[in-house]
Amino acid sequence: MTPLTEVEGRRLTLSNLEKVLHPVTGTTKGELLHYYATVGLAILPHLRDRPVSFLRYPDGPDGQLFFTKNPPPGTPSWMRTTPVPRSEDPRARQVVVEDLPSLMWAANLVVEFHTPQWRASSPALADRLVFDLDPGPPATVLECCRVALYLRERLSADRLTAFAKTSGSKGLHLLVPVTPTPSAHVSAYARRLAVEAEAALPELVLHRMAKALRPGKVFVDHSQNAAAKTTATPYTLRARALPSVSAPVTWEEVEECALPGADPDALVLLMDDIAPRLERYGELLASLFAPELAGSVP
């Protein structure tokens, strides 16, 4: 029998709660839903007023994965949707997850949450900048930490404040609050800094995804600042063998992992790690929403 539950006055159907999604740890769908209910206060500010794209993995990371931007079949009438600028479909709309009922409805689909750098209320006007630091083996997150520290200082020189989070996969993401700026301008600035990083650290950094050059280096992906691109939302679970999370980390943790001999697994954060971290550190990305920290993009 498919259980019904009520969340803040909305009736939801939650299905297949005993289904194992991450066989390595035996993590079930019910545990996944419990995770999102637990971290709702942390993840919701990063989802509100942003059109959401879903990477769905209903049979776990070893099953079929498919990316969807359109509202999925069966989307409740009470779910907010918003028009989004798409050249191929000027009438396109996407879901907006803005409260606990909509979060739990989406989580029941078994998804990664991906959001753009702009809000639904101001399409293509970015309020944050992002760098995705992606290591090419044998490079690991440790090399990403070295690059992150360089970029933090470079951004600081332009009076911009960077925050770090794990990608939930192999690398790191840097998030930078900015005063609302056209996405094209933010993209151009981010690319310029990626080029500068490659010039400053040629043995470590690439600004282009050139596979032949990737081994042992960190690709500074600046492309996710384009209006049409999205990034894994803070606190989203990822479709990986382990139930890893794209979660914020402190700069002290990044600095420690940049030291010789550091353990790359120190920045592998799993679902069960997040509630204790929130209790210990609070929401490390809360200041992303502080107007006084939003800097002007040169």
Features:
MtLigD_Pol-like, 7 helices, single chain, LigD_pol_dom, 27% helix, alpha+beta, six-stranded antiparallel beta sheet, 298 residues, globular
Structural description of this entry:
Keywords: Ligase. It comes from Streptomyces zaomyceticus. Residues 71-90 are annotated as: Disordered. GO terms for molecular function: DNA ligase (ATP) activity. The structure is a single chain. This protein has 298 residues and is an alpha+beta fold. Helices cover 27% and strands 24% of the residues. The strands form four sheets. Strands 5, 6, 7, 8, 9 and 15 form a six-stranded antiparallel beta sheet that branches. A six-stranded mixed beta sheet has the order 13-14-10-12-11-16.
Sequence-ordered SSE layout with sheet pairings:
Layout: E1 4-7, E2 10-13, E3 20-22, E4 27-28, H1 29-38, H2 40-47, E5 51-56, E6 66-68, E7 80-83, E8 93-96, H3 100-107, E9 111-115, E10 125-135, H4 141-157, E11 163-166, E12 172-182, H5 183-200, E13 205-206, E14 218-221, E15 231-232, E16 248-249, H6 251-257, H7 271-281
Parallel strand pairs: 13-14
Antiparallel strand pairs: 1-2, 3-4, 5-6, 5-8, 5-9, 7-8, 9-15, 10-12, 10-14, 11-12, 11-16
Protein name: Non-homologous end-joining DNA ligase
Enzyme class: ligase
EC number: 6.5.1.1
